[in-house]
Amino acid sequence: MIARAGAAALAASLCACSGGGQPPVVAAGTAAAALDTVTVREAQVPREIAFDGVVEAVDQATVAAQTSGRVVELPFDVGDYVEKGAVIARFTGSEQRARSEASEAGVAEARARLAEAQLEFDRTRDIFERKLVARARLDKAAADLESARARAEAAEAARAEAREGLGYTVIRAPYAGIVVARHVRIGEAVTVGRPIMTGLSLEHLRVAVEIPQRFIEPLRRHRRARVVLPDGGSIEAVDLRIPPGADPATHTFRVLVTLPPGARGAVPGTLAKVAFVSGVQARLLVPGAALVRRGEVTGVYVVDDKGRVGLRYVSVGSPVVDGGVPVLAGLAGGERVATDPVAAGLSYKRQSAP
């Protein structure tokens, strides 16, 4: 139980925050009767062990040039958001365009030769069936037809390759994301393999955590974790990828904790605390909304059997999934806690008035 002066000060602070003035004096039992309360009970909650990890993007890549040319367009810079399929770089393509046009002409010529060889084969076959030419003449016409067909297929393959090379002069984003690095400038000449731009997607994130070998077995058994955010909230992991073996140099396991798609609050490259479930334990639970927080002080309003309201300092753990908060010290099972700390603070102030 905290000192009465400290409790009164904290209650007065709550009353001031609620905007209420000096309330009238009422009987303690009447003041407490209107309060909503919950009875503190023990519950089985996950026992957790926390480790620091680094947030990283699942989709992160550096796009490189697949043809030669000079950079003529770079629509995006570092920090820009890029839609999937958007043009992120464009090169000069005069050589590739000329090669594509030549391949189109080659296909047209090959098709004409194929049509001519087909007509010659048909005429020769008709004459052969009337027994007016030798078998060798028909065989030669068939061979010429097959050769023309092969040349036509080769010409079409060359055209496909030329078109693909021309397409390489325009680079598009493989997925929606943020540009994190730009490796070329407009006017630079590039060759095959030259890095152009690096980007990452914020849609799919994960946290990489190095786990010492003595902790890995409980993690394997439960395979549950949550990422604790800087604001005190948390995000449940959708998947844990635990390697079969440890790093021989550090003797740690690099565990990848996958976050749900579109998770907000985690930023690639930053540190994040990951709480892994290692078992279960019995804890007293109170609703998170019932807690009174002022700086480093955490408390709850307790209503006794006579209807008196008192402020109690408590030590709490991390919130569980359903919004309850485990109480580590300061409460006993069966006590009643006010669920609305502002209303309880008003009641406390009324019963303390002379």
Walk me through what this model shows.
The chain is α+β, with helices and mostly antiparallel strands and 354 residues long. Residues 1-31 have low confidence and may be disordered. Strand 20 (315-316) and strand 21 (324-329) form a beta hairpin. Among the domains are: 4-43 and 282-352, conserved putative lor/sdh protein from methanococcus maripaludis s2 fold (Beta Barrel); 93-168, Helix Hairpins (Orthogonal Bundle), CATH 1.10.287. Helices cover 31% and strands 34% of the residues. Strands 2, 11, 12, 13, 14, 15, 16, 20 and 21 form a 9-stranded antiparallel beta sheet that branches. Strands 1, 17, 18, 19 and 22 form a 5-stranded antiparallel beta sheet that branches. It has a 4-stranded antiparallel beta sheet with strand order 3-10-8-5, with no helix packed on it. Helix 1 (4-18) packs across helix 6 and helix 3 packs antiparallel against helix 4 (135-167). It has 6 helices and 22 strands. The longest helix is centred in the N-terminal third of the chain and has 36 residues, at 94-129.
